[in-house]
Design goal:
Blueprint: H1 8-31, H2 43-57, E1 64-65, E2 68-69, H3 76-88, H4 92-118, H5 120-132, H6 134-140, H7 146-165, H8 171-189, H9 192-208, H10 223-228, H11 230-235
Antiparallel strand pairs: 1-2
Helix pairs in contact: 1-4, 1-5, 2-3, 3-4, 4-5, 4-6, 4-7, 7-8, 8-9
């Protein structure tokens, strides 16, 4: 019997179903019963208290803990939790919601980028591996800065991959997303969001022997890091 040849458009028709299934997986792992247990450890209650004061006072510039200024961490998680409080009330679910949302965004971008570069099978595998990784799953359900930092750096490096592999003028938008995501990472957990990608990409350039390639990465767009992360730089 002659085997039927699957046409490329059939893969495209499968995309909505795959995206739906991926959304269900993200819901089960990241959102289901997100607020069913109380805040854990010293960090979740502390960060939630800062976000609650931000929400209750309406001051989204200066983080405070028990009325005292609190500049130990940047503000992105506090902003996200305060927004969650305004929609869902002051609950554990709302406090953890930013982590779950950022984790979900990076999973879907992982699928999109991998499908574009390596095909649908690799995209599904990579997305599911990321979603079910123990550390990723754990911090996606926690009211802390770690998931926001991880997701921002994941999105930044995925955007970098697209920028490097697209031969069209549209690549500049991916590099803009790369730098802006690093800026959000700075708002998540500080200067480490610049150091880690810088070390990774320096190793990439040295390993491949392409030390001048950075000039093709729209380096002027790096100003977006400082524009996006301006509140942190002002605070420190």
């Amino acid at each position: 019997m002659r085997r039927a040849i699957q046409r490329p458009e059939l893969h495209r028709l499968n995309d909505p179903l795959i995206v739906l299934l991926l959304g269900i997986v993200c819901y089960v792992f990241f959102f289901h019963a997100l607020g069913s247990i109380g805040l854990i450890g010293p960090d979740e209650p502390r960060y939630t208290a800062v976000a609650r004061e931000m929400y209750q006072t309406g001051d989204y510039i200066t983080p405070r803990l028990h009325g005292m200024t609190w500049f130990e961490k940047p503000v992105l998680m506090y902003w996200g939790a305060a927004l969650g409080f305004s929609v869902f009330g002051v609950t554990e679910f709302a406090a953890r919601l930013p982590s779950a949302l950022f984790a979900t965004a990076s999973v879907f971008l992982m699928y999109f980028v991998c499908r574009k570069l390596w095909g649908q099978a690799a995209a599904v595998a990579a997305s599911l591996i990321l979603t079910t990784s123990v550390g990723y799953l754990t911090y996606a359900r926690a009211a802390s800065m770690d998931m926001l930092l991880t997701a921002c750096l994941t999105i930044a490096l995925l955007s970098f991959l697209m920028g490097c592999n697209l031969p069209t003028p549209n690549r500049r938008w991916w590099f803009a997303a790369f730098y802006a995501s690093i800026g959000l990472g700075v708002l998540s957990k500080g200067i480490v969001a610049i150091v880690l990608p810088a070390l990774s990409l320096a190793g990439y350039l040295i390993f491949l022997g392409k030390r001048g390639e950075w000039k093709e990465w729209n380096p002027l767009y790096a100003i977006l890091i400082f524009v996006v992360a301006a509140p942190w730089f002002i605070a420190v």
